[in-house]
Design a protein that fits this description.
The protein is of the alpha+beta class and 232 residues long. The chain contains four helices and eleven strands; from the N terminus they run E-E-E-E-H-E-E-E-E-H-E-H-E-E-H. Strands 1, 2, 3, 4, 5, 6, 7, 8, 9, 10 and 11 form an eleven-stranded mixed sheet that branches. A hairpin with a 2-residue loop joins strand 7 and strand 8. The protein is elongated. The protein starts with 14 loop residues before the first strand and ends in a 6-residue tail after the last helix. The protein binds zinc ion (2 copies). The site of one zinc ion has 6 residues, from helix 2.
Length: 232
């Protein structure tokens, strides 16, 4: 006789928390996430199914494997993971656990998930994030993004928080978490549904920061050009 755990039939999908790195496809048309440990090589979409990370031909999660999506029950447990150096630029995800799951003391291992909310931490300078910018590394076909403020953006590939939510689709909300607020800038963009005034103001601030950066580069080139330096 095989011992079986009691089966649960929740009326609503359970909620869980995890951390992940936001990713942008190389052509800039799709957005998703990539895990910080097991399964980190396989980016996932807002609504996605788990596959066995070891390539085994079974449905994830399998009892005798450790494949499947993973999450914890408590937000604070997931937040604590953001303290380590390598996870500082990861974002906190609130997810719905869908499909089959295996419950553990601290969380779930499961088959399918929907990412409902992504909370983005501050820019490396401490300012509240206005965008997600190229973090300088990635996975094949995917750039990993990190929280960034308008002042630190410079010429890097980036998307606004609202822009990331749009590309990721599936009703994802992207919210700016803690950070020093800059006077005159929009409050934390909260991207869900269509863009509202705060999101549009945030996007305008990003564009302005970009233009300022390009203008400063042009000015520098212009000065060099007037000095009679080599052309081209
Ligand atoms: Zn497996
Ligand atoms: Zn900054």
């Amino acid at each position: 006789m095989r011992l079986r755990l009691p089966e649960e039939r929740p009326t609503e999908p359970p909620t869980g928390y995890k951390i992940a790195h936001p990713v942008l496809s190389h052509d800039g048309t799709r957005a998703g996430f990539t895990g910080v440990s097991l399964g980190g090589a396989l980016p996932y979409a807002v609504l996605d199914d788990a596959t066995c990370v070891y390539g085994l031909r079974h449905r994830a999660p399998h009892r005798r494997c450790d494949c499947g999506f993973h999450c914890v029950h408590d937000r604070t447990t997931a937040e604590a993971l953001l303290c380590t150096a390598e996870h500082r630029t990861a974002v906190l995800l609130e997810i719905s656990v869908l499909g089959r799951y295996i419950r553990f003391e601290r969380g779930y291992r499961y088959a399918r998930q929907r990412v409902r909310t992504a909370t983005v931490g501050p820019c490396a300078c401490g300012t509240v994030a206005a965008a997600l910018a190229d973090a300088g590394w990635g996975r094949p076909g995917w750039r990993v993004l990190a929280p960034c403020c308008t002042a630190c953006l410079r010429g890097r590939t980036s998307v606004s928080l609202a822009g990331f939510a749009r590309l990721a689709a599936g009703g994802l909300r992207v919210v700016a978490g803690k950070g020093v607020r800059v006077a005159g800038e929009a409050s934390a963009p909260d991207a869900g549904g269509g863009p509202g005034v705060p999101e549009l103001v945030a996007e305008a601030a990003l564009l302005q920061a970009r233009l300022d950066w390009f203008q400063s580069r042009l000015d520098r080139l212009g000065e060099r050009g007037l000095g009679g330096g080599p052309q081209g």
